[in-house]
Predict the 3D structure of the following.
Amino acid sequence: MVAPVATSFSSRPTTPESARVEDDTADEPSATTAAELAPLYRQMLAIRRMEEASAKAYSQGKIGGFLHLIIGQEAVCVGAISTLQKDDYVVATYREHGHAYAKGVTSRAILAELYGKKTGCVKGLGGSMHIFDRETNFLGGYGIVGGHVPIAAGAAFAAKYRNDKRVTLCFFGDGASTIGGFAEGLALAALWKLPVVMICENNQYSMGTPLYRSVAVEDVSLRALAHGMARDRFDGDDVVKVKRRIADAVERARTTGEPTLIEVVTYRFRGHSMSDPGLYRTKDELEEWKRRDPLNRARARLVDTGMPEADIAALEDDVKAEIEDAVQFAESSPVADEYKKYVIKDGEG
Amino acid sequence: MVAPVATSFSSRPTTPESARVEDDTADEPSATTAAELAPLYRQMLAIRRMEEASAKAYSQGKIGGFLHLIIGQEAVCVGAISTLQKDDYVVATYREHGHAYAKGVTSRAILAELYGKKTGCVKGLGGSMHIFDRETNFLGGYGIVGGHVPIAAGAAFAAKYRNDKRVTLCFFGDGASTIGGFAEGLALAALWKLPVVMICENNQYSMGTPLYRSVAVEDVSLRALAHGMARDRFDGDDVVKVKRRIADAVERARTTGEPTLIEVVTYRFRGHSMSDPGLYRTKDELEEWKRRDPLNRARARLVDTGMPEADIAALEDDVKAEIEDAVQFAESSPVADEYKKYVIKDGEG
Amino acid sequence: MPVQSYRDALNHAMREEMDRDPNVFIMGEEVGHYNGAYKVTQGLLQRFSERRVIDAPIAEMGFAGVGIGAAMVGLRPIIEFMTFNFSLVAIDQIVNNAAKIYQMSAGQFHVPIVFRGPGGPAVQVGSQHSQALESFYAHVPGLKVVMPSTALDAKGLLKSAIRDDNPVVFIEGETLYNTTWEVPDDGELLIPLGKGDIKREGSHVTLIAWSKMVWVCLEAAKELAKDGIECEVVDPRTLRPLDVDLLASSVQKTGRCVIVEIGWPVAGFGAEVAYQVQRLCMDALDAPIERVTSDDVPMPYAKNLEDEVQPQVRDVVAAVRRVLYLD
Amino acid sequence: MPVQSYRDALNHAMREEMDRDPNVFIMGEEVGHYNGAYKVTQGLLQRFSERRVIDAPIAEMGFAGVGIGAAMVGLRPIIEFMTFNFSLVAIDQIVNNAAKIYQMSAGQFHVPIVFRGPGGPAVQVGSQHSQALESFYAHVPGLKVVMPSTALDAKGLLKSAIRDDNPVVFIEGETLYNTTWEVPDDGELLIPLGKGDIKREGSHVTLIAWSKMVWVCLEAAKELAKDGIECEVVDPRTLRPLDVDLLASSVQKTGRCVIVEIGWPVAGFGAEVAYQVQRLCMDALDAPIERVTSDDVPMPYAKNLEDEVQPQVRDVVAAVRRVLYLD
Ligand SMILES: Cc1ncc(C[n+]2csc(CCOP(=O)(O)OP(=O)(O)O)c2C)c(N)n1
Ligand SMILES: Cc1ncc(C[n+]2csc(CCOP(=O)(O)OP(=O)(O)O)c2C)c(N)n1
Ligand SMILES: [Mg+2]
Ligand SMILES: [Mg+2]
């Protein structure tokens, strides 16, 4: 019954080739100033240091469960979210510490959450994957791949319903591009013309699977074509460029209400989560990407803008102090203690 | 909190414009012969008469539940399935009497099933929506929109696994184009290069909703673009043309193993199901489509091929006799009587 | 008092709540232009326009999620599933998002949303369209689950559900839409979620049932009354939270309990009811608790088989006689 | 006898069955090149090549359906869910297709498929990743549901599941992979589905538990033995079909019953067990049946809260003492 011919179901050999974007602006840095770039650099650095601190705490057993770090990808969330106003919404995945921080959640609240402390942004109930913050309109980190995409469309639906001009950014991974929740959320956003920007952070792997083994065509942004939706695709290591390109889409959403699908090509320097040794990629591949570290790139550009080295160093010291304080805060906070309170609102309504 | 501006979520006024395909072959009838066309015409006519008989039986209370007729769309299933070999698979929706018949299920077995009789193709257990037939490799009629698309990919997967060169045809409606099951089935077929032809029967409505209120772009075949998949789109009222165009895709699947997404534009003359009065469309619209009735068209072409009127009439009498016999068979068959037997195979395995 | 159909009661509940609160909207397949596959939303599009009555394409996972996102930021969506059979493609949104966002956000976001539509077998629609999924939803903390049996309950409970700050799964009886009941013409008719109702008083046996099975129990009770057997028919109305006190006090009185449910037996909601009753009434029980349920099979299409599979009045009568040791 | 880990037992079961039958293949996220998110499929890609060990993209609904279609035409797929939490996006395929195709086709097509993967809370993975969904699947006729507690059962039951002609939902304990048990080195080690097992004999109280909770019960039994209380620990192993005879005969003997489950209480599978036990053993029962379950809440992240929510040995001990009226 079984044919003797071995049939392979994967479309390419297993060694990935680097999947850089064909993009004519790829190597032209976007014009910027110290005033614009310094706060972006500061945020990226704070996210990097915060995540390094969390990795350390994890290895000491102070953080548990799944911990997904965004190290290497910081320019995407920082550049994208810098285009928003406070009232705008952000919806993200389980890899969302950076997005929460960029939207205004403090490093204290994030780290305390990872430590499972009462002072965490969700009182130790959510942990790394489920950061929520009403104050900054951070609508959450979600653990089911693709499941949050319709939720982002829903926040945008509310903005359209109220005509309040708020914009929603929705972040998801390249691996989410094959799941129904993404397809349905995208279709509804297009049909109803909802003011949402769907941002695929293509870090080229979903866990250990390179994108070419997940999709037939390695360009997630093409999904927009069938919906007549605006789309964009670019490299994500220049934070200013990310900001510019996302700003166009945010502007489109704000003024015309129309959605955009954007794919940003990036790379994570760490494993999928803390337990992943990353054996599916070569050291060379990783090193190549590290040479394009968005933080180094931003720092170098900051120097180019004429910002004095002493000022940069002061900024860096400030970040160091902030994260040290946040770690200290998380360490010394009391453990989580309430959990029955947040099941049903207002008793038996 | 609510803006005073009324916001419409539908993208066009509610009167649909006729959605004909831009297709340079639209009005050139494909060359054919009586030998080719006569059996196709016979099948279409038998399906029409069988469905008319079932509508009558429904109104007499002899058939219950949901009854979805394909009247007006017969050229699609007949033309498409005529390209297959017996070993090939067909997977369809709840609107599948025609597909089953075209694959070789008898009108007796289909009508007896609709009557809930023991002699029905699934012994009265499935009814109109769930026709299955192992003998002809008809893998079923399914009631959950989109849910059968992955199953079709699975049958094609098995063909690839065994390298047995079988081809799978999967039929679904325009309304299925927004659901996750379709998106995932399509993505997997493309990724794994499965020998399946995905055929969207775009009859322009999902229940009472015209396609322009279901999707942002009224071209379901565009979904193929993002997957690098072959696609086609054409009018479905010329059965020979349907046969030719589907044959190309079947050939592709059989020889290269590659999938194709095809949209066939058609129209159903009856309501969505027997309980639907079809108030969402105008009489004029319906009449315009009826003028393009694929049966009339096929009959006229049969005359053109030189088939004597007497032979055509004989064929029509034959169909009449077949369906009368099938009705008689259904009426006189014993009622269904087994149902506990088909829950778990072989007792408590 | 005016008599109203279950369908109209639901329709008026939505209309009144949409009149009352501009944040309430309804979304689902065919709810607008088509006036609802079962006409429950009749006239709402005309009254409230396309902004608030939104026809959705076939994408239950997507529009359930859209409702959840909208609810998080302050709207109060009513999401109609054409039938609850189709909620299975959206259940991840309900279980993993709607039910958990209040908890995951430590109370910062809540999800005031109603998922509603008909559930349970209808007539001859086959196995994929004939299932009672209440035990799935009742299992999940963070949800409320409501299953009204009468037009009165339908109206009062749906209004409460729409005003509730939590996600509510509201399962209507697909075969109850044409049933009627006395319903006061009162815009503030609010029946609290979590309170059961005694649909008929009796002292010999307690029958516990919800949705359509209440009607079957009432019929059985009538028949049994002819033999002098008085059944108390208790309708919890809300499965989560469950009014265990009401159920227990009835069984304390009667000492016998039959649970009647339209769905499959194994791990159905009736099992939970049985557990609670035996826990609270073990000493009072004069016989084991009996369940009358659907046969443990996917639903066949043929009418004769479908009737055989579903709980009938005669099955309830037989079970009552068994717990009374009369046969 | 050689001792083996639960993980290796599962791995060997699949390897042996794939050696035995060329129609068996495995498909799921990261099952191939990554050797499985939990390493259960370690080495299978190398042994069987990409044709039979297929890495799927994130599309559970899609690849569950692909498995079903392939099974209909004669293959025997093993579909791995990275965890059963993600089966919720595929549940429509399992309930409406896998479970019903044998019935809908009146026996013409059957679906020999295994859906497997870890289920139940792990450690600190939060509410969306910590749920025990066995009561959903056990509700559905047409499915079998298996939940092994030991490496021995894991191997013998998985081999039987792969050879079974019906769809089997095979839920592994996410925290059991490293546990060990004596497992004979026997390629024909087949434990029949639907047969329970007594994991410890005792005469005072019957503890009914499956998967990880068997271990908790064994610990509790050890502790209680110090006070002279002898618990019988009964593991149904298969929830559907359920070995009610074994459960009932134990309770007939002991007269007391505590059901321990890791999931939510309301309409959990424990309710079904309780219904069956009270039905068959009402006269023998000297105390109401007790359940020990998770708290009725979405799972919190913090370790201290997570421990509080889940059933612990001390909770089982307390319940046993309650049904013995010792406190
Ligand atoms: C529906 C579902 N299936 C599987 C998983 C397990 N899982 C968690 S993250 C992940 C990979 C996601 O990859 P991608 O979308 O590229 O995001 P990244 O982790 O790279 O940021 C998988 C398979 C899940 N969380 N949800
Ligand atoms: C998941 C799901 N949602 C809703 C339905 C109810 N329903 C049955 S048919 C139908 C319309 C389908 O339209 P289309 O796909 O265009 O097929 P057609 O009926 O026109 O052949 C709907 C909404 C269903 N069966 N399944
Ligand atoms: Mg990725
Ligand atoms: Mg259609």
DSSP finds twelve helices and 14 strands in chain C. Chain C touches chain D through 50 residues (CB under 8 Å).
